[in-house]
Fold this sequence. Notes:
about 100 residues, alpha+beta, 5-stranded mixed sheet, about 30% helix
Amino acid sequence: xxxxxxxxxxxxxxxxxxxxxxxxxxxxxxxxxxxxxxxxxxxxxxxxxxxxxxxxxxxxxxxxxxxxxxxxxxxxxxxxxxxxxxxxxxxxxxxxxxxxx
Length: 101
């Protein structure tokens, strides 16, 4: 099995930093839960990205999504020719999805 390289787009990196900071500051009983769920999601994406739900398709760009069940975030990503690109890290309670390509 070929493992995909997983990269993070600049906008998603900013969203990730905000989520990590908020989680660490506000969830004192499980300050590392977000990081553990995110790391597990990245590993799963790297192993089999095409198995995840197709969220959005426009201009020949397929955006897929994986949920982080305990923290209620979702990670949105695109499969490129030689890597996977995370394009958003978004809390599901926001009522709408993130801006995606």
